[in-house]
Amino acid sequence: MHDNEVVTVGPAPLSPEDVIRVARYGAAVRLTEDAFAEMAAARSRVEELAEAAVPAYGISTGFGALATRHIPTELRARLQRSLIRSHAAGSGPQVETEVVRAMMVLRLRTLATGHTGVRPRVAAALAALLNAHLTPVVHEYGSLGCSGDLAPLAHVALALMGEGRVRDASGTELEAAEALSRAGITPVELAAKEGLALINGTEGMLGMLVLACHDLSRLLTAADIAAAMTVEALLGTDRAFAADLQALRPHPGQAASAANLRALLADSAIMASHRDGSCTRVQDAYSLRCAPQVAGAARDTLEHARTVAARELAAAIDNPVVLPDGRVESNGNFHGAPVGYVLDFLAIAVADLAAISERRTDRMLDVARSHGLPAFLADDPGVDSGHMIAQYTQAGIVAELRRLAVPASADSIPSSAMQEDHVSMGWAAARKLRRAIDGLTRVLAIEILTAARALDLRHPLTPAPGTGAVAAAIREAVPGPGPDRFLAPEIEHVVRMVADGTLIRAAESAVGPLR
Question: Domain of 228?
Fold first, then answer.
């Protein structure tokens, strides 16, 4: 995917792939004619209500607990400006560019449905900001995940007004007014309801869910590769992964994971070496034997999260919302519970997947359980420490992932003078899931690096074509067993190979597509 691609944005749902193209790879966006038509039709109804004597929330009233005040016509432009300025109250570290761009394109699509009632020029300005690669500075803290991701989206809206700060395509931070001027974008003067329409959605947490689902799909395949390499290195058996045994418990994720393990371990000379009746072990430890059950449950959790994401990608979230028959109605669709729950659920699966990976690594390093491998896979145990401290690093990450698995969505804090008395904390759930995914990537990388070393130490026995191809890919950049070396750069190299799919491609070059 390249940044010269164009993603069309209209009333129809965006695909997860289109969100990734815009968010991560810088694709441009183009609003459809249907989008302009829908927005123009809905805007006419908002303008009717703005002129009416009866107060309409967000159009001629204040917001939240201040909704009881009717705002006179001459103050309504100020009302919208004040809303954005006051709500752009984020704090803490800056949020990643890909998250902000995901949030922007998802909110653009919601505007394009016409249900928010903004003028077409507002959506066009947001599209122009994306296409100019100007990314508003958004901060870590500020969203409670109810009434939408208010503060994060307000920082985006502030940039549309020519205020606040943005980063350009090179990553340089500058004043929004200067950046818009350079890009030839006219700042937006917000009219009735438009400030509220720009911020009252769950696009921040949804964008992070879409990105997380994309990344976890790759990591789940990497987890199967890691498990296969370790089972082989520890002289385990693949008989527990047989299709007829797996079918006795018909979870689709489990079946997919077991199929990967069978493919990766097929034709292993290491496994063949202990199938001659000399092995006295009846069964392997849980961390080996139950690998497809754990990874499979994580796969099924991911599939549920994708279902929720797909529904959200088809949603148009705002309050009030403009309906096709012209009604403008208040609602609670901005509550982030559906997204927050699955974000927390995924964090639990990530923590457990990392935990079983760390346990497998530890077995390879323990001379009492590694079935003939040297202590800590060291060249000269006692003089050398081998991978002893790499496992410490794993253990530290796993402990952190267990803390990150504590659900954010169970921790509502009332706000807005008790008007907003139950919130989702979905944004917080999304932020911790991003950290958890990074941690899982590192844990799996350490297991794979350790297993590759263990497989080398089984020489002259050779691994399966699938696991051997992964080990060979690692050896192109990371040397094999020997005296202790500076280990951190080797770990980081394999982290990148896990994250970018290099190791999956290596395995698939030998065994065909993995699931």
Answer: 209-306+346-511
